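Predict structure. Chain length: 382.
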Amino acid sequence: MTDLSAATSPPPTLAADAPVSARRTARLTALDAWRGLTVLLMLLVNNVALGSYTPAQLVHAPFGGMTLTDLVFPWFLFCAGAALPFSLAAMTRAGVTGWAWVRRLLERAALLYLVGAFLTSVTLGAFYLGLGVLQLIALATLCAALLGGLRGRWQALIAAGLLLGYGAFLAYGRHPAGVGIISETANPVQAVNQTLLAPWGLRGLLSVIPTTALVLLGSLAARPLQARDPRAPGRLLALGLVLSVLGYSWALSGHLPFAKALWTPPYILYSAGLATLGILAFFLLADAGRVAWGARLLAPLTIPGRNALAAYVLPILFKVWVLQGLTVTWAGEPQPMGAALLTLARTHLGALAGGWTYTLGYILAAWLGLAWMARRGLIWKL
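Prediction complete.
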């Protein structure tokens, strides 16, 4: 497991395919900024308050489609994978090897899982140990981290094997509706969840298979950047284009759709390809030394990017405990604080402008809190 705010790293003369333990670390603005952009998008899509004015890209697509909202979670996982080579190298340099290395990975995964379970329990208002966002990240990143010592080509082959095997399961797995039928309500994953996993509170456990592949793809994308390979831009461009084209073509063929709920292989590949191209764009802007003001331009994104775990957890707790948990009186009626603030904004600014003011105000408040933490060196790592 790696913490979500892990550092990124430099150099020397090793090829991108060299074992991760042989490298040193130094931050790359591109990875921090891309992770920060993902965090801010998460805050946006999870707290949009525009009602009927909400753009289609800010809501989840129907089964078989994809919007910007559907890309946020896979980009979180991709970022966790991109941090892996750096955090694993740091562990090796610190002398954490062998069983101590495995134990550290297990401890980090367990801690992140427990943080996720706590957050899910707070959100649901009841004790819950099943899979949520952080729990899935913990398990998928643990599986990928245990493979972190392998060369890139082996990681690529394992990722391909996981996706092909999972795709075959989706396409040929038998379930009550029949073989080869994949819909939102009838598919092999749902059948396994209902019959085997739901009684144990482990619905969604099968998702660890494709998401591990996604984390591995993130790790592969970061390797040439970590090695400061002069061929890194070309390699990332090729990888991003190949993954994007493969994913889009696979979905277009009709064999498997884009489906966030099922983590279908086309969805994994396409989202990983876009994330690779996004990190490449940020790398060229901020880290390649060709744009003097590039790093300053992306600096606001690095604030949530370097403290991503806090950026994910703390705004949710604030929303549940304060905006939804505290009651105030507005227009003679008791309302949750968040609802009262939204009503106030809409009353004075109109439905659309008031909704945007509330949503962007929430994001700005979260960013300011993270900026305050950054100034004081308060970074939450596991």
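Summary: The chain has one domain: 20-375.
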